[in-house]
Amino acid sequence: MTDNQPTLVYDIRDSRYLNITGRCTLQCQFCPKHNGSKQVHQYQLDLSRQPKAEELIAQLGEVSEFNEYVFCGYGEPTLNLTTLLEVAKEIKLRGGKVRVNTDGLGNLFHRRNILPELATCVDSLSISLNANTEALYQQHCRPKLAGAYPALLEFIKLAPQYIEDVQISAINGLEGVDIQTCREIVEATGATFKQRELDIVG
């Protein structure tokens, strides 16, 4: 794809994915984009700018053909919050389901609780925990914002109060990370734990 025709939507299995930003609050050492690839399956997800809501709405397609729409690219979707909310509301108006894949740092970045806004148009959240201690989180996820790990834990604790379906993941295979402890952190909040495997994307 050229800069004039970025991949804004891409399909995996029965879901349509929405790629709304290339910016991120993390620089995860295990993320393929930091290892020379911005590709998921056959899709190149490199973005040189933040797309507008109308660009994505034009590519939604027929909502009945998809199990859900997932905000997930190689950036953190809550950094383009206005576009996310506008597009998600349009999907809900058309009868579709909306999931947001997030690093859980949206409240820290925006300096307010964004969960009430997400709750108006988001059916489910998938949040990346990725580590059971702050030191391991710093090592593997390399956050750009100070106080990221405590902010993530607070977001994880708050999320189920606003959104019914919350899944929180950690990656099996990251050096030093205790998957069982990650599971216990998650299940204490009432959310669902999802174990992912290192180097498997999409």
Structure keywords:
9 strands, seven-stranded mixed beta sheet, alpha/beta, single chain, two-stranded antiparallel ribbon, 202 residues
What would you say about this model in short?
By secondary structure, this protein is an alpha/beta fold. The protein contains seven helices and nine strands. The protein is globular, with a radius of gyration of 16 Å.
Order of helices and strands: EEEEHEHEHHEHHEHE
Helix coverage percent? 25-40%
Structural class by SSE content: alpha/beta
Mean pLDDT: 90
Poorly predicted runs: none
Report the end-to-end length measured between terminal Cα atoms.
19 Å
Radius of gyration: 16 Å
Largest sheet geometry: 7 strands, mixed
Number-wise, the strands total 9
Shape: globular
Number of helices: 7
What does this entry look like structurally?
The chain contains 7 helices and 9 strands. By secondary structure, it is of the alpha/beta class. Strands 1-2-5-6-7-8-9 form a 7-stranded mixed beta sheet, with helices on one face. The chain starts with 8 loop residues before the first strand and ends in a 5-residue tail after the last strand. The model has no long low-confidence stretch (mean pLDDT 90).
What does the secondary structure layout of this molecule look like, with pairings?
Layout: E1 9-12, E2 15-18, E3 39-40, E4 43-44, H1 53-57, E5 68-71, H2 81-93, E6 98-102, H3 106-110, H4 115-119, E7 124-128, H5 134-141, H6 148-162, E8 165-172, H7 179-187, E9 192-197
Parallel strand pairs: 2-5, 5-6, 6-7, 7-8, 8-9
Antiparallel strand pairs: 1-2, 3-4
